[in-house]
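Hey, resending since the last one bounced:
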Amino acid sequence: MCSPEVVNFINTRMLFWACTTSKPEGYRVSQALRENTYPFLAMIMLKEQRMTVVGRLEGLLQPEDFVNQLTFIMDANATYLVSERLDREERNQTQVLRQQQDEAYLASLRADQEKERKRKEELEKRRKAEEDIRQQILAEERRQRSLQDEKERKSECLPPEPFSEHPDSVKIVFKLPNDTRVERRFLFTESLTVIYDFLFSLKETPEKFQIVANFPRRVLPCLPTEKEPNPPTLQQAGLSRCEVLFVQDLTDD
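The structure tokens again:
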């Protein structure tokens, strides 16, 4: 077995396993093979899809005889070896093909899942955008109803319009941002807040506005502030018995 010829033959042609029968593993193999003498060599190969003993060499042999007998056994079973190698290659190719198909399927599945995820994400984004728009519309409707309720409340709380013959009567013409004119009489003793509330109650008046007098040009302090909690009266504001006031739109400011 130590001959270079034998060592080279074994190393280049087969897988070699050796063990002594004094070891448990070697003893179990010995019981399975039932050798008659030692040294003993069995050649085992895959034959008809099972591991089969195709040759047995027992006793001492010369290196040349040893190699020749092994060669004879291998040549005698060459057909099976070729067949098994072809089968193994076919199985390997089938396994590779199946693996490639599985990988292609998984790649396609992942692509479909990603497409479905993006579709759901887009639907959710669209649904959220539509919901946001709907909420904005509802909020605007609520704001408009609240604004209309406030206009009606302001209108109901306005003092009655005085007669033209009243000694404290003031005639005011309001020019609105949409070029319309509105005329009404007030009392000198009434607060500028009354003028503001009257204009606020009108449908044509913008939501946010200020009232401007022209001569001299000034903004009338119609709403209470921290410094002036009580706005002045028409008389205190310097208005005459007949005035033209301008309503300036502040909605976009």
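Residues 159 and 214 are 26 Å apart (CA to CA).

Sorry for the duplicate.
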